[in-house]
TrEMBL record:
UniProt function note: Participates in the folding of proteins containing disulfide bonds, may be involved in glycosylation, prolyl hydroxylation and triglyceride transfer.
Region (Disordered): 513-550
Alphabetical keyword list: Disulfide bond, Endoplasmic reticulum, Isomerase, Redox-active center, Repeat, Signal
Matching PANTHER family: PROTEIN DISULFIDE ISOMERASE, PROTEIN DISULFIDE-ISOMERASE A3
Listed name of the protein: Protein disulfide-isomerase
Lineage of the species this protein comes from: Eukaryota, Fungi, Dikarya, Ascomycota, Saccharomycotina
Signal peptide extent: 1-20
Ranges of residues in domain Thioredoxin: 9-161, 373-509
Similarity annotation: Belongs to the protein disulfide isomerase family.
Leading EC class: isomerase
Organism of this sequence: Meyerozyma guilliermondii (strain ATCC 6260 / CBS 566 / DSM 6381 / JCM 1539 / NBRC 10279 / NRRL Y-324) (Yeast)
GO CC list: endoplasmic reticulum lumen
Catalytic activity, EC: 5.3.4.1
A Gene Ontology biological process term: protein folding
First-listed, main subcellular location of the protein, grouped into a coarse class: endoplasmic reticulum
Length: 550
């Protein structure tokens, strides 16, 4: 879950950088006389059930990128209607069909999904956004996931035409499906992962012979053989493990990317869904990339299955450096991102303004040996004056652990982002709450704290899926094994003083009664009419159901 959040975050940066040309002004709704089908909640189900392959665009009429897409989408629909009438293009207007769009978890416009009947989970469309690209992509989607090769010529042509890495099943002439169900397993896996690679199956003995002539690693065998091949490569990689569904899946995940690839809109998915760390070389010109091509190919081969290596064109996607906590102005740069562990490692840009093959190789060796420290992004520590002046304790990556790991205190943390409207609304209440507990004083039992989350790399025991996320680490609470922090209690109530005070009293280890403290300080809660407080609370509750999404 966390992983997907992160990858969509990365993707957002890549795509927003790529879409720099900006939206246009036309109509987002396709011409009603075109072949684009307008879907509503009433006819959605029957349409999906009666059409085997649908590309659905979930859109809003006001959205600029939807307007930009509309003419291309229409052109593609009309063209497919002529050549491949089984492939349908449809539109769902999310300002009208809110329910339908919610079911599909639509978070941005336009969102395009490839839908194969209602029994299969819709797939995200990650293809081009101009007419001929959409047509090609959808025609490829309509073909069987596994291509059967039946002659030597077809085998040679298929290898020569590869645009993506391929996995090939080679069956002996007398193959019979046994207990292992190798063939049907292969077809099932191919069907699920057709977007990632090209899948071929070969049983014809001439075709097998043609491949054996071409690739020296390919040996004759009496049982099924599985190999992977990169476009243009002069040899193949055999599946070394004993065949099983898991072994095949792992093989695909490793072999779907080249030793040194390129990350861009077409390939990001392959890299982001790979569980292994990704090493980036950011370059500004093809020459810069070419100069290190051999180094990276060698490193890619050596560390296959441990690290993926990619080039990134910084003139297009340079902003991605910020996500790696690197300076986008100093290119070329080299950095490693461990997406699963949420850690980043960068080759020092001041010492290596133009990283050499030697420096990169050493850095990679140190990474694999576990000798590198990750980059920790942090805002500066607050000064003593700032601490004294602010009732709310300001957390940054550098003081986070010392404060949040102090198990003698109830630590109540607001994780926020600078741009988040709901967070701004809450700020005065959060200040008031902090004043009640004298939270910035050394002897406070309750610490009211805030952390600007995107600016500080910190561990959080629960996934942060929106801002603000408000967590209470109770004094003497149970310890979360992975982070060493306490297991937090998430605050999901109405974001008003009453509810926050109640929450600290109920869930904190010290059970501090903030109402009493407030009264002692001359608070005014009791002066307010109870009914009015209730009403306000309800109002606030309605207003606050939503977080700002990441
Ligand atoms: C779709 O194709 C059919 C058959 O060629 C044609 O009759 C129909 O007018 C086309 N529809 C659109 C909207 O182009
Ligand atoms: C392998 O499975 C596919 C899909 O079920 C089937 O079409 C094909 O005939 C099978 N091949 C062999 C050799 O059993």
């Amino acid at each position: 879950m966390k992983f997907w959040k992160l990858s969509s975050y990365v993707l957002a940066a890549l795509v927003s950088a790529a879409a720099a040309s900006g939206p246009s002004d036309g109509d987002a709704i396709a011409d009603p006389n075109s072949a684009v089908v307008k879907l509503t909640a009433a006819d959605y189900q029957s349409f999906i059930d009666s059409n085997p392959l649908v590309l659905a665009e979930f859109f809003a009429p006001w959205c600029g990128y939807c307007k930009q897409l509309a003419p291309e989408f229409t052109k593609a629909a009309n063209s497919l209607n002529e050549t491949n009438p089984n492939i349908k293009l449809a539109q769902v207007d999310c300002t009208v069909e809110e329910e339908l769009c919610m079911q599909h978890e639509i978070r941005g416009y336009p969102t395009l999904k490839v839908i194969r009947g209602s029994e299969n989970k819709p797939d995200d469309y990650d293809g081009p956004r101009e007419a001929s690209g959409i047509v090609d992509y959808m025609v490829a989607q309509s073909k069987p996931a596994v291509q059967t090769i039946e002659s030597a010529d077809a085998a040679v042509a298929a290898i020569a035409d590869l645009k993506k890495p391929a996995v090939i099943q080679i069956l002996p002439a007398d193959y019979k499906e046994g207990k292992q169900k190798e063939n049907s397993t292969y077809f099932d896996v191919a069907s699920a992962r057709r977007k990632e690679l090209t899948f071929l199956t070969i049983q014809d003995s001439d075709a097998v012979k043609a491949l054996q002539d071409k690739f020296k690693s390919l040996k004759a065998s009496k049982s099924p053989v599985y190999i992977a091949i990169q476009p243009g490569a002069d040899d193949v990689v055999p599946l070394a493990e004993k065949f099983s569904k898991d072994a095949l899946e792992k093989f695909i995940t490793t072999e779907k990317v080249p030793y040194f690839g390129e990350i861009n809109r077409e390939t990001y998915l392959a890299y982001m869904t790979s569980p292994i760390p990704l090493a980036y070389y950011f370059y500004n010109s093809p020459d810069q990339k070419e100069a290190l091509e051999k180094t990276f190919n060698d490193l890619g081969k050596k560390y296959r299955g441990k690290l993926n290596f990619v080039g990134l064109d910084a003139t297009l996607f340079g902003r991605h450096a910020e996500i790696l906590s690197m300076d986008p102005e100093t290119i070329p740069l080299f950095a490693i991102q461990d997406v699963e562990a949420n850690k980043k490692y960068g080759l020092d840009q001041k010492k290596n303004p133009n990283p050499s093959a030697k420096a990169i190789t050493k850095f990679v060796e140190d990474f694999v040996a576990g000798k590198l420290s990750p980059i920790i992004k942090s805002q500066p520590l607050p000064t003593e004056e700032e601490v004294a002046a602010q009732p709310v304790v300001k957390l940054v990556a550098h003081n986070y652990e010392s404060i949040v790991k102090d198990t003698s205190k109830d630590v109540f943390v607001k994780y926020y982002a600078e741009w988040c409207g709901h967070c701004k609304q809450l700020a005065p209440t959060w200040d008031e709450l902090a004043s009640i507990y004298d939270s910035n004083k050394p002897d406070a039992n309750v610490v009211i704290a805030k952390l600007e989350h995107p600016e500080n790399d910190v561990d959080v025991p629960v996934p942060i899926e929106g801002y603000p996320t408000i967590l209470l680490y109770p004094a003497n609470g149970e310890i979360d094994e992975k982070t060493g922090l306490r297991v937090p209690v998430t605050f999901n109530g109405a974001r008003n003083l009453e509810a926050l005070i109640d929450f600290v009293k109920e869930n904190g280890g010290h059970k501090v009664d903030g109402h009493a403290l407030k009264e002692a300080k001359g608070g005014v809660v009791e002066d307010e009419d109870d009914e009015v407080v209730e009403e306000k609370k309800e109002e606030q509750e309605e207003k606050d159901v939503d977080h700002d999404e990441l």
